[in-house]
Amino acid sequence: MAPSVFINFRRADTGGTAPHLDTGLRGVFGESEVFRDQRCIDKGAHYPDEIRDKLRRSRLLLALIGREWETGVDASGRRHLDDETDWVRMEIALALQWRIKVIPVLVDRDEMPDRADLPEDIRGLSTRQAIGFRPHHEEIYLPALIKAVRAAVPELAARRRRAAPGGGGVSDVRSIRSDRGVVILGGSGHSGVVHNVGSAPDDDFDDEYDAYDDDQDEGRT
C-alpha cells in the first residue's frame, strides 16, 4: 500500500523531530499511511528506488525545515543544498515536479528560507504555506499539524474513519503532556488509545534514536 504522507527531513538539522512526528501521525492515520525512510526501507533494499517509488505514490510531503536547513554544510564545507544528489533537495524537487502537495514544517524557526537561498529546482517551496512546530511543545503544535494533514489529504481522513471501529476518527484527536512526553488520545477510533509522540530532551528515546540512526545510510545527514 502506498503511503499518503512522506516525511522529508535532515537529521542534523531537526534532530529527533522526524521520528516523533512519524510516531504521532501513524498513531492517528495508520501504520501504512506515513513514510520515513529510516523506518520503512528494509536492510539491503536499493533505497534510491524505494524513496522515489514511495514519494511518487504519496499525496503529501512534509518538508521539515530547521534553523540550519539552508546553511548546513557537509564535511568539505559545501552547503548540502548545493549538492544535486542531496536527498533532502531531491525529494522536494521531485515532489514539486510531480505536483505532490508540499507543506513546509518550520521546526523551531519562524520564517521560511529566502527564495534567493534556494536552488532553482526547489524555489517553488518558497511559495508553499508553512506551519510551525516546536518539538518541546507538541501538545500545542501537533494537533495543528494533524489538522493540516487532514485538510491536505481529505481522503486519508475518510479512509481512516471507515476503518475505525465505532465510527471514530481523526477529528477526535487531542493531545496532553505527561512526564513521558506528549501523548495523543484517540485518533484511531479506539477510545482511550494512547500514542507516545514527543519526549523531553533527556528521554531514553533520544539515545535509542541515536543508536538506530548511526546504522542508516549516510545520504541522510
What this model shows, in words?
The chain is of the alpha/beta class. It contains 8 helices and 8 strands, in the order βααβααβαββααβββα. The relative contact order is 0.17. Residues 166-171 and 182-218 have low confidence and may be disordered.
Widest sheet: strand ordering = 2-1-3-4-5
Please state the oligomeric state of the protein chains shown: single chain
How many helix segments?
8
- What can be said about the biggest beta sheet? 5 strands, parallel
Q: Can you describe this structure in just a few lines?
A:
35% of the residues lie in helices and 16% in strands.
Main attributes of the structure:
221 residues, 8 helices, five-stranded parallel beta sheet, three-stranded antiparallel beta sheet, 16% strand, 8 strands, alpha/beta
Give the helix/strand layout.
Blueprint: E1 5-8, H1 11-14, H2 17-29, E2 34-35, H3 37-40, H4 47-56, E3 60-65, H5 87-97, E4 101-107, E5 131-133, H6 138-152, H7 154-163, E6 174-178, E7 181-185, E8 194-196, H8 204-213
Parallel strand pairs: 1-2, 1-3, 3-4, 4-5
Antiparallel strand pairs: 6-7, 7-8
